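Loading example: each entry is read as two labelled lines plus one structure line.
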Amino acid sequence: MRSLLLIFLVSLSSICVGQNYYIYVTAESEDEVALIKFDGKEAVVEKTIPVGVWPAEIEGPHGINVSPDGKYWYLSLAHGNPYGTLYKYSTETNEVVGTVELGLFPASLQISEATGLLYCVNFNLHGDMVPSTVSVVDPEEMIEVQRIETGVMPHGSRISPDGMHHYSVGMMSGELFEINTLRLKVDRVLKLDGEEKKEMGEMASTGGMAGMDHSKMNHGQMDHSKMNHGSMNHEKMFHSKVKPTWVIPHPTNNKVYVAGNGSDEILEVDLDKWEITNRLKTGKAPYNVDISPDGKYLVATYKGSGETGVWDLSKNKELARVKNTRKVSHGVTISSDSKYAFISVEGIGGEPGTMDVIDLKKAAKVASVDMGKQAGGIIFWKQE
Amino acid sequence: MILNLKPIMKELKLIALALLMCGTLFAQDLTLKVNTEPITLKIGESVQLMAAVVDSKGNKVSGREYLFYSRDARALSVVDSTGYATAVKHGEYSVVVISPNPDGGRLRANIKVTIAPAALAKIEIGEVPTKIYAGVTFPLDIKVYDKAGFERPEITVKLTSSNEKIVKPAPFNKVIAVAEGKSTITASVDGVTTKLDLNIIENPIAKIELTTDMTEGRSGDVFTLKAVAKDKNGKVVTDAPINYSFSGESYDVSAAPSGMMTKEGKFVADQPGLYVLNATSGPAAASVTVSAAKRNVSRKIEQVGRGSVNTKHTSDLWIWEGVDGKDYAVTGTWGADGTAYFWDVTNPAALVLIDSVKVDARTVNDVKVSEDGTVCVISREGASNRKNGLVIIDVKNPRDVSIISEFSENLTGGVHNVFIYKKHVYALSAGRKYYSINIEDPKNPKIVGEFELDTPGHSIHDVWIDNGIAYSSNWDDGVQLVDVGNGIAGGSPSNPVQFASYAYPSGSNHAAFPYKDKKTGKFYVILGDEEFPYGLDPDGRKPGRAAGYLHVIDFSDLNNPKEVAWFQVPFAGSHNYWIEDDILYAAFYNAGVRVVDLSGELLGDLNRQGREIAWIVPEDPDGYVKNAPFTWGAQPYKGHIFYSDWNSGLWSAKLEPVVPKNAEVQTK
């Protein structure tokens, strides 16, 4: 009986009290992270946390996520000399508790609840068109355990609900990668531009990745100074038409959804079949995607049109296309109660960045708050 | 408040069910058991590390998967899926084991592994001089290796001599040649020995004749000693080992004498005083006394004008003579809205903002103008489409500048710095390399060449061109001298050829500026650090503080560059700088502009030598951050100094041209 009472109280508190939502948002051109509170009506910046150590260099906070227990937030600073850095902050104090250097332009990241390890793509946004990696970090120790080579400009680091698989996309190579989070190896690769699917074993024998066996190359050791890039025919290099920029696993249906930034669509990939099973035509240049914890809604930012699309996944229908406050819609994160989507909007030049709040049931923007320039990485922290 | 209890009851049922299920699972009380006994391996040995999830009764749970990883995989390699570990290098290490729970969460444990050091294998003693004169002390270069091939610097070797009347060991692996004769030095530790036979010959040196190129100079002047060792017959001993040293007394009773003596016999005084310079070789010794007067180069500096920018941060500046004969400046902005400002600075006392351009960027970090004053290039970072690149601007009429073209090919990652030289733009790309871009037709820029290092983790911060040589600052890789048209190495803009370099341990090389001293013929490249060890103000509104300094590298011998001097400002850090007529104009962030006398040979600590001529700090109570000088760069131009400050914009100052002899000048 006592336990039933306890259950009742817990349930009651979650229903009646949980009206404040907390979100962390990066300001990539301000070297700041904003902690934003949304009370159901109004969004306000609760705290602005300067990040990085160089006052006169932009270090570019890009990817952000919160540990499953909510005690820490993790931030990738993309720029370095040349490598970027992963920072670990306490959510209690918003102070740095650890750092570790990763690869070139570390970006989106997430911790697997199964392994406890953090997986961060090294986007290498500004580098040569060569395959990059996913860094695997032990966040308890802040040690980089492994680097796993994937595609060209990997982005969209998200973990399956059981924590056993990591998904990312190669933005320029047009590939979807599935990494076994425990074995720390790429299990499967799906070419999103229409080529047939390949298991990793086949890749080597058929010369996958646009005909090159990049796994045998040590790109970091290559002598690029001896190459004449000016005379190279870059037009003949493979550039994905889909240009995938994000992938998000569905919480229950064993599918992942890929943002086709170049093809203006969301690709539905069935993980059992390992093939594209649906294409949802979107607004211009979908960029980041999230799915509500209850599995009903898919929300995608349309970077090209400054809008956000709210989709009903049961019908694969776009419910609304919400105009964002500014141009260059970037990231999206959805509250744990599946009620609100929070959208980071970069803006242009000297404009502030903005976080918009979309009520998913109404499929409408209900609040907005300005923050530092180029709002980018965004993650829902807690509701209380 | 009225509650609709129907949904609550539904949720209650679900929660209760979930908790009951969890209770069942938790009751299993699973534990991850790993090796608890100490594991000690020899190098090369392998071991299967053990991990098993057991229930409360100690029964192994089947179907579990495990991940093993070594905290130092280079010393203890571990196969992640099996836990098969192989010892590579001695030391104490740990392996983390993780086993995911099927219902969420994971079990985790550590295994400690000790790798015993291999037995010592050998002691190596480096080369010693072929002729060792009695009376001389010399060092031994001793290295100890173990049987696994690792050097063991922590091992102390015992030195003994077969005849201490001939050769005597001294602390810190030194050996004293006491007298003529033969002796064997034995180096030993843990049963490993190495012997070194030494033949000490009679010291022929009867006297040293010591001269100096001058006996009176100033602090900061280099006194070059010439020591000639002669035997009792007056014959020169050419291979005599000479040790140089100095002592002295300061002219200022409140200051201690100080200076620097090189192994080659070059002395420089920091503190004015009377110095005794010594040369010894065994029992022979000689000395000369020199006087170093106060350098007395201080000059008055006055702020002349300013062009306030206090709504955003200001970055770099460039001053040039326009095609109309008037003088102009362009300044960039940082972390703002992509604006570059154009100023009429013909009257340095009245800096007039005359035009601006705004591009899709947040930072215009660098600005440069062509030699003929017609074209300006600005760098872009933070473009909204992430295609940064550079922007070429027509500045023939600086009052009405116009964008000629934008260029982002291979430069999308952001251009931090640029330089214009002979119709080519040298533009950094994403901090990794630089491209040479032909702008003979500025509407259609064309990449014609590129330069990139091939070192692991290479990066680049700046490039500066002078006399056909590109000086790029490459952080850990130091400065790279690249022929882009000078001809010294057959290079050109389309075929840049690297021919010299110098790196220093801190890896902070951020800027470089060449300087040839006409009097001495010395060719220096001054390398600047950029360091921010103090981090950021948590509230973001307090003045920043930098560190790092300027390193003077003597490149007179391109194949053997040597760091000879440095200029440091306490509690401040260097940024951009310029050299003209033997004077250095250096922005030192929170310490403003420092004006430094570079005349003559450079050696040692230039600041302590009193070479600083003047300094001026741009403090602005109305600045973007109030009263927070953060000076970006300085450029001497037609008798004035122009400088940009991150928090306050563009400034001009005038250095008083005449130095009253022996006058004390207060600078501000």
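Helices of chain B lie at 5-26.
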